[in-house]
Sequence to fold (220 residues):
Amino acid sequence: MSQRPLQEPTFLILTALAAGAQHGYGIMTDVTDISAGRVKLRAGTLYAALDRLADEGLIEVDREEIVDTRLRRYYRLTPPGAQRLAAEVERMRAHTTVAARRLGLLGGLA
Amino acid sequence: MSQRPLQEPTFLILTALAAGAQHGYGIMTDVTDISAGRVKLRAGTLYAALDRLADEGLIEVDREEIVDTRLRRYYRLTPPGAQRLAAEVERMRAHTTVAARRLGLLGGLA
DNA sequence: TGTCATACTCCAATGGCCGGTATATAACGG
DNA sequence: CCGTTATATACCGGCCATTGGAGTATGACA
Fold:
């Protein structure tokens, strides 16, 4: 039970999959959207993370398709993966709440 | 302007200093509190991060005291450090909002 | 014809964090 | 009286996720 914090790219990959099964390249573009263009995943980061997350059982292969001779491997979030992401959201909410309060930022509700 | 995401220990160190100047060991215990015991900073992580953050200009030495022959070096957040932390809070809020929505967690307001 | 979009693979280098050791004093418990 | 915990900082090897590329391949667009 590592339970060490997820880094941003990993967090966003899980978030992308929380909307339903997607293939690698789709995740890449979705992450760009989610983060309003702030985060652009490198191919190396993405596919390495996908392998790692699958090894950890947080995601799994949903299906594979061949489109124009090009492989599309779809991944989906597993129940443990969804739990892990939810736990991470909680952790981040707690931390941002403290930080915002200390910085005098009171725009927390809305 | 690197502007790559802060990792959790770094984020919490800045958050600790957002409450006012503190010395290394104080930050360590404060971080344990902030995170409700979930995160315990290693000495290696803490002091290395302090040096790094000072190099980046996000924090600076506030003052030094000698208490019982023991050195206490107090650090404080610089204006750029506060801005950086605020930006990080914004980024995390945006990400957690999307993730929570996709997970069907609606406990965002309160 | 060239470049962008699609789609996955692999690799060297970077750098923050982990885990531990070292140093030193004071206080508390058994 | 001795061991452990608390206070307080410094240093270091190693790990591993991310970075930042290059490589392979096809179709579309200008």
Notes: The mean pLDDT of chain A is 93.
